[in-house]
Design goal:
Number of strands: 5
Distance between the termini: 55 Å
Shape: rod-shaped
Strand content: 5-15%
Strand order of the largest sheet: 1-2-3-5-4
Number of domains: 2
């Protein structure tokens, strides 16, 4: 059925179809015009007044030209309208009955209205109406204004013009809907790429920072404290294993793989202990304080909170030098407040809040994505602080209405 439908659509839009329809219409209208010019009733003959009966057969060539031109109505609608109107106008001025032949320029008006702007379609339809009515009235074999075709011309032209304009408007609307949907699809793809880039940055940056610090520790103490090397290598092993697990989970989402790791839960504050323990193994003393009664967070807020803490601790490990860090979580009815501080002596561009790369911007974007905010900067007494406020409207808080 799909093949049949595709073949039908190709046929509808093909030039061959237009040519076949133009030929069929030519045959019908030429025979119709021939019948109009060869009346077989005495009453009809009497109505022809002093005009020739029958019509000269050569005059029917004008009707054929007006019809055959319609084969190019899609590519050259205005030119086809001009040719069709001119041929029928000449045919009418010669004094021949033009009832059937009027169908050709009327169809040409529809083709123009369906493709041109509304203003242009109205102007060309009005010109066509004026030309056809003038040519019909000047030498009408039934009397200047007595022919039925003369009376029907305004209604025919107006009807096809409005129909063509309606079709053009519908096509424009469908095109705008399609363009909007394509734009939305591109926007969603871009947003997904940005989200994945953030995830990869957070995972890789934290893992590599931990490995780098531990490798440096191992190299430093190897000659004097061989036993400490084992601890550093164990920390490197744990950090790399956790980083690989998160990378595999992200890639499985991209591949839509159906394996065990693809069902791992998204990182959140439930994994905060694992994150902190990994940072401690890298040699960073960390304290964690939780104020208020913890409650389930929306998934997006939970992920954003985890990544903000992770990025903050990563920056402490990389830039703060010998330092202590403190993580504070405050659960409030309408928001989750996060504070990550350190006592390091890193430069303004290199401690918790001053990362010159994408870390700080990523934290702010994550917070903004859930309607929150992040502020980072040096502390008055030394060190740096990251403060995040994440709204939790709609979270299930027992006994509290946000």
């Amino acid at each position: 059925m799909e093949a049949v439908a595709a073949a039908w659509h190709r046929w509808v839009d093909s030039p061959v179809r237009d040519a076949v329809l133009a030929v069929v219409l030519t045959v019908v209208l030429v025979f119709g015009s021939y019948g109009e010019g060869h009346p077989n009733q005495l009453g009809d003959v009497a109505q022809f007044r002093n005009h020739p009966i029958p019509h000269p057969t050569a005059a029917l060539a004008l009707v054929a030209v007006a019809c055959l031109a319609l084969a190019w109505r899609r590519r050259y609608p205005v030119a086809v309208l001009a040719v069709s109107v001119a041929a029928v106008a000449v045919y009418s001025l010669l004094g021949y009955v033009n009832g059937a032949s009027l169908v050709a320029p009327v169809l040409a008006v529809y083709a123009v209205a369906a493709q041109a702007s509304v203003r242009r379609a109205v102007v060309l339809a009005a010109l066509t109406l004026a030309v056809l009515m003038t040519a019909t009235g000047v030498n009408n074999p039934f009397g200047r204004y007595s022919d039925g075709a003369f009376v029907l011309i305004p209604g025919m032209v107006a009807a096809v013009a409005f129909a063509g304009i309606a079709v053009a408007n519908r096509r424009a609307y469908a095109a705008s809907v399609l363009e909007r949907s394509e734009h939305d699809a591109r926007r969603r793809v871009d947003e997904e790429r940005l989200r994945i880039a953030r995830e990869l940055h957070d995972v890789v940056a934290h893992t590599m920072a931990t490995i780098n610090v531990q490798a440096g520790v191992a190299a430093h103490v190897l000659p004097t404290q061989p036993e400490a090397v084992a601890e550093a290598l164990q920390a490197i092993k744990s950090a790399s294993k956790e980083g690989l697990r998160e990378l595999r989970a992200i890639l499985n989402v991209l591949r839509q793989a159906d394996d065990t790791d693809s069902v791992q839960p998204a990182p959140g504050l439930a994994q905060l202990d694992v994150l902190v323990e990994g940072a401690r193994r890298s040699g960073l003393p960390i304290t964690v304080a939780v104020a208020g009664k913890p409650f389930p967070l929306p998934a997006t807020v939970d992920l954003a909170a985890y990544r903000i803490v992770q990025e903050s601790l990563t920056n402490v490990i990389r830039h703060a030098g010998p330092a202590d860090a403190a993580v504070s979580l405050r659960y409030q009815p309408d928001e989750l407040a996060i504070d990550v501080t350190d006592t390091g002596h890193g430069s303004a561009a290199g401690s918790v809040g001053g990362t010159a790369g994408h870390g700080q911007a990523g934290m702010r974007e994550r917070a903004a994505a859930v309607g929150g905010s992040v502020q980072a900067g040096p502390r008055p007494g030394g060190g740096y602080q990251v403060t995040a406020r994440l709204p939790v409207h709609g979270a299930l808080v027992e006994g509290i209405t946000p």
